Amino acid sequence: MQGTEIIDKVDVDTRVHDNNIKKERDLNFELLRVISAIFIVASHFACYGGSLILYNKLVPNLVVGELLFMLGSYGVNCFALISGYYLVNSKFKVKNLLKVILAVLFYSIGFYIIARYFNLTDGSISNLLKNIFPISYGAYWFATAYVGMYILFPFVNLIINNMTQRMHRNLIIILTVMISLISTILFNATPSYYNDLTFLIYLYLISAYIRRYDIKINDNKKVFLLIILLIIFIVIMQSLYTSIGINKNGAIVIAKQFGLPTIILSVLTFLLFKNIKISKGKIIQFLAKASFGVYLIHTNVHMVRIIFDKIIGIENYYFVNVGKVILCVIIGTIGIYVSCVVIDTIRRKLLEEPLFKTKAFNGLCNKIDSFMNLNE
Q1: Cα 310 to Cα 117: distance, rounded to the nearest angstrom
Q2: What is the CB-side half-sphere exposure of residue 182 using CA atoms within 13 A?
Q3: Taking a C-beta distance cutoff of 8 angstroms, is the pair 6, 217 a contact?
Q4: 14 or 266: which leads in pLDDT
Q5: CA-closest candidate to residue 153, choices 123, 197, 121, 120
Q6: CB 206 within 8 A of CB 267
Q7: pTM of the full predicted structure?
């Protein structure tokens, strides 16, 4: 690969501290956040619809299923990269952490109550506890890992700030081999030290490196072409492996979030959006604020059954013409995404924003922030 021709590395002492640059790029990454959320919604038509296990031969429907699956991993990685890019130059703010935790609790408990009312779930103590403590029980894997990463990021930043560029780069290379390369080559030979939290911290280190040393691409067209080629490669390889029976039980990790091709694809996409300049975008900002809520609503264990089984009936579509499958995914993705945006916007306006404006709440948050910001 001609990676050295694409990536333009600047001097070791270069830092991104210009607030004007940050504001200019905010909309770019907000747009990437919106697109990632849409990709994640679309991917769940494959994950929850069971399309990846319905075929043992290479057919168009299988290729569509593998493409959708890949889009989810792609979107998750971009989400994590955006977080690391901003957090590396940020201070700990408990408000941001509480926004995540309270949103998770609201949807987990709220949908559990609804599901119990309509007898869609059992009333066992274990089930109750899982819904009351969704982060501890990992009801949402990304939310649980993100909370852990956010709590630890001030400590991670201390380590990053005391590393040279060479040390930082070498750490990323070592972790890439440990977390991604081994699993990609050896068919899901996931080491015991790997978990969702370590993976998010790994992506954090990558985006922090991009931010601290202002890593850029100098040819958007070449990178865009490379992104398209990578997507085609990932989908074709996954489809081939699945069609000949090698990919049973998800043995092939190429399209998973920690697969090396998917990580490269995500980083290149992030760098491409870093170069894009958008001056205005109220709609983008509005949609981006609901991105996490979109994830929490449509992946809730109770809502999955309602949305994908009862409303859409996705499994009924995978044995029909591929055109109908694609149409179902497009219409379904738009419907789910818009509905979730509306629901989460109402939650934020009626509950979150009033709470975060109270003096008592802000006073408590300031005390916690002082404790966590270690360099003050």
Answers
A1: 17
A2: 13
A3: yes
A4: 266
A5: 197
A6: yes
A7: 0.88
